[in-house]
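USER: Fancy drafting a protein?

ASSISTANT:
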Amino acid sequence: MNRVEKLNTTLFMNRVEKLSTTLFMNRVEKLSTTLFMNRVEKLSTTLFMNRVEKLSTTLFMNRVVGWELSFTEDLSELRQIYIEIKTRSEKNKYHYKVSNELKYKQS
């Protein structure tokens, strides 16, 4: 994708053995991704991004064995990363929230 103003993605998955997603994006103003997953054995997501202003990812996962998320991007252009992971088991509820604002020196 090139010069996408707003990208919204929602995935509903149940009992997926392996999910691999690769996104190549340039000059995306806002990227919002929501994943609803149950019993996913392996999730691998790779994002190649350049000049992304805002990235928001929310993951709703239950019984996920392995999860991997990697970023390959020009971090000097990325203003904010917001990742929220919510997992729920039968007895316990877990909420993980990671918010990071990136600040870099220009060299």
Notes: Residues 90-107 have pLDDT under 50 and may be disordered.
